[in-house]
Design goal:
alpha+beta, about 475 residues, single chain, Outer membrane efflux proteins (OEP), two-stranded parallel sheet
Amino acid sequence: MRSWALLMAAGLSACSSAPRYDQPTSPVASTFPLADTPPGAVTAPQLAWRDFFRDPRLQRVIETALVRNRDLAVAVAQIEQARAQYRIQRSQRLPNVDLGGSGVRTRQPAELTGVGQAVTAESYDLDVGIASFELDFWGRVRNLSEAARYNYLATVEAQRAFRLSLIRQVAVAYLTLRENEERIALAERTLAARRESLEIAQLRLDAGVTSSADYDQAVTLLTDAQTQLAELRRTRAVAENLLTVLIGGPIDVAALPPRLPLAEQQMFDRLDAGLPSDLLVNRPDVIQAENQLRAANANIGAARAAFFPRITLTGATGFASRELDNLVGDDRRAWNYGGGFTLPLLDWGARQGDLDAAKAERDIAAATYQRTVQTAFQDVADALAGRRYIAEQILAQERAVAAQERLAETARLRYANGIAIYLEVLDAERNLFAAQQSLLQLRGASLRNQAALYAALGGGQTE
């Protein structure tokens, strides 16, 4: 029995046929463009999402989404599935020991016994045994277990990546909704003012002070505001529908904290971008891609091992007897053990095909990993560009709004004093409304960009 124990120990400490794993080079620059570091900056992974999104209403919405989102629930269930598959595969590295027993009673008729009378016989056995255990000399089972482990780890990272994406999507949808609400409020105020202007134009027309052209231009201003207001309300409805899906269903709006305007969102805006190499350990989608690459690398080892013989052991020990009452005892002891091997001699290229497929899978996983790193770099670089240039746009647009307000006021005064025609007022009012709407859009874009930068840097993994 010692020889069999040594063989089993050798099988458990098998060599690996997998190629050595080398992390692919990162096809990105060593630093981020426009990566300025504000005073008091911290890295995104150090900042919990509740500390970054400081709007109490937004916090409640994100919290609800993390509990109720159906896709996130699927991702969590997939982790459990992958963990179970890993346990199944890992169990193949150790012998499966079974306890079995049986009892049989048979009767043969007299004409078949050869002694002229019927014979009744009984047999019973009780044993503990190993049905079949592969001695993993070439690492086939070990590599399959490693592949299952990395696939499980990849699933864990996939759930983390989706969770981070969900936080970003909810924040973006919420901020888009807040932007639409403020733009609607502006459009409603503008519409009310233009209704008053239309009434004045009607009175002036009736009194013969102005021509019908001035009245029609006032109507044009009013209908323009009505059209934009209807479009903004449609956009708000779409944003509300998206947010409802993301949070997993309707939410009791009355139970939420009060809304904060865009100017008071109070996001943490001093994020340190760090280095691109930090993304390799901070971005869950990058870690997921690397684990999938490691799994593919291990599958090559399993495919290589298939070219060598598969050696298996069987064995059992227990008791056997013709009588159930005397089944257990030293004189009833029974045992057996044995072994065998299998080596396909002619498979018409099936094993080579499996190996080639495993290598191709590894190459695909390596390219996918590098593409994921590139995407992560692009996400951060785009958000950093947005942080700098959207801020510059906001400053310029604020000056433009102030100038348009002065122009509109001047145009109204000139028209009231008979110096200018109403067309000048029409153009000034249109330009002012467009400038105010653009400013709100830029403020919303700035907040959404901050949320995107936070997620791109791997933040949001902690409460």
